[in-house]
Amino acid sequence: MGLTDQADFLNLALALETQLPAESLLSACQAIEKDLDRVRHEHWGPRTVDIDILLYGQEIWETEHLIVPHPFMTQRAFVLVPLLEIAKDLVEPQTGQTYENYLSQLDTNDVHKFVTSD
Q1: CA–CA separation, 99 vs 62, rounded Å?
Q2: What is the per-residue pLDDT across 38-93, written as a single tens digit (0 to 9) for each?
Q3: Contact assessment for residue 55 and residue 90, using Cβ atoms and an 8 Å cutoff
Q4: Domains observed in the chain
Q5: Which of 2, 30, 64, 102 could be joined to 74 by an S-S link, Cβ 3.0–4.6 Å?
Q6: Contact yes or no for 46/2 (Cβ under 8 A)
Q7: What 3-state class would DSSP assign to 68?
Q8: So which residues are the catalytic ones?
Q9: Could you tell me if 94 and 60 are in contact, meaning their C-beta atoms sit under 8 angstroms apart?
Q10: How far is CA 106 from the centre of its chain?
């Protein structure tokens, strides 16, 4: 899924609390991408920045612009590894399976932790 023949990239997960509805949060994320000069070239191709909403609590959303939980997150080790670093016990709201279980079924050989020291 997605292009596999592309440069390495950094991925991170962030947990936050917001009063914004999910669609408004998506708009805010897209505004940040625009401010950081994101250019959309190729679907699933390399990009300068990509901000995705993976989860919105345990809610399930499907609109024209937003699907939550993110529809491909359970198939992407590069998404689940950082997500589970900040929230190890998360459960997929539709299936009840842990994201740790999904990760155990994926190849993580190309996912490496990038650690800096101060």
Answers
A1: 20
A2: 776 666 566 678 899 999 999 998 999 999 999 999 999 999 999 999 999 999 99
A3: yes
A4: 22-104 (3.30.70.560)
A5: 102
A6: no
A7: strand
A8: 38, 47, 50, 52
A9: yes
A10: 16
